[in-house]
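Project outcomes to date are best conveyed with an example. Our students and postdoctoral researchers have been running inverse folding experiments weekly, and each run begins with a structure described purely in tokens. The record below, which covers 329 residues, was selected by the lab manager from last quarter's runs and is presented without edits.
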């Protein structure tokens, strides 16, 4: 189990462990011997944007290029051989309060056989890192640096799976509500889903490639670690395909919604056209007999209004009959 030990004072380190390779770990206090070859390995998790982060990484002997990669302002998922180790950038869904899941959180990782350094921004907490830490505190920690990467990727994939499933549930609900007259509400939901799928896919597609390149090219990983990474990469591929399918479903639903809107507009325009067809000849008659000029027939006949009203009613009936006969009604 984890033993609590006072570590060196630095604001850059969030937590740090020495893992014995059997699942147990202890909090690190001395970083001066972390590159020495011994049973087990060290894991240091830092804040990449802390003012002391670069100085700390320099003090423990990390190379310049690796330091720059770990403390970069913006990152995309990628894998690279760097300073005698491997750099891999990953992304996880954002579970911080008030944040959107598709605003994915970056975790930068550099590792070799006996050291792994992970970094994230100060205000971008990643629960998957906390899951790994809880496993260590429970005596169920990773046994190698590759095992830690595989375990972290598994936790990242689990939360990605939850978001992908929620997108699928929203699309299913939209399909069930397609006959709902609240078109604006449906349009807002579709717009949100399309935005979410695009944002998630933007990072998951290169993350899939980074993981695939890692397990194919890194010779220091054990066969078990490679199998674990390959499985997690296959999961990411599956989620990317699910997002592609969700995007296609959203496009189809958007097309169906546009067709429904067009049909509704056509139906209303058709109704207005029918009304206009009926009242056009009546408006013509009222326009003629409403002229204030001499010589209009019926001006001196008290029955003229009744005759005009009957004539207009008959004309309206004739027009309605004609529309019915043409099957336009």
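After processing, the design step wrote out the following sequence:
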């Amino acid at each position: 189990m984890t033993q609590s030990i006072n570590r060196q004072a630095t604001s850059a380190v969030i937590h740090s462990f020495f893992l014995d390779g059997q699942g147990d770990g202890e909090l690190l206090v001395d970083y001066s011997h972390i590159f020495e070859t011994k049973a087990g390995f060290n894991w240091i998790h830092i804040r990449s944007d802390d003012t002391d982060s670069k100085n700390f990484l320099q003090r423990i002997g990390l190379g310049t290029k690796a330091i720059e990669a770990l403390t970069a302002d913006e990152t995309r998922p990628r894998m690279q051989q760097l300073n005698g180790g491997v750099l891999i950038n990953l992304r996880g869904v954002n579970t911080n309060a008030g944040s959107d899941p598709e605003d994915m959180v970056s975790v930068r990782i550099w590792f070799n056989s006996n050291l792994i350094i992970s970094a994230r921004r100060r205000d971008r907490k990643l629960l998957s890192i906390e899951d790994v830490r809880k496993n260590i505190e429970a005596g169920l920690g990773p046994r190698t640096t590759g095992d830690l990467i595989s375990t972290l990727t598994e936790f990242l994939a689990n939360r990605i799976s939850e978001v992908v499933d929620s997108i699928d549930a929203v699309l299913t609900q939209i399909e069930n509500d397609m006959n709902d007259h609240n078109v604006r509400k449906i349009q807002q939901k579709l717009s949100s889903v399309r935005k979410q799928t695009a944002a998630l896919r933007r990072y998951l597609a290169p993350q899939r490639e980074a993981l695939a390149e890692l397990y194919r090219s890194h010779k220091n990983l054990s066969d078990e670690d490679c199998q674990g990474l390959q499985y997690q990469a296959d999961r990411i591929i599956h989620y990317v395909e699910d997002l592609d399918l969700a995007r296609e479903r959203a496009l189809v639903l958007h097309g169906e919604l546009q067709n429904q809107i067009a049909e509704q507009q056509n139906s209303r325009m058709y109704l207005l056209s029918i009304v206009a067809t009926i009242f056009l000849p009546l408006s013509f008659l009222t326009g003629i007999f409403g002229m204030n000029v001499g010589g209009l027939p019926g001006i001196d006949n008290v029955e003229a209004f009744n005759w005009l009203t009957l004539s207009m009613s008959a004309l309206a009936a004739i027009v309605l009959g004609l529309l019915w006969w043409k099957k336009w009604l």
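Residues 13-259 form a domain with the Beta Polymerase; domain 2 fold (CATH 3.30.460.20). The chain has one domain: 13-259. The training component of this project remains on track.
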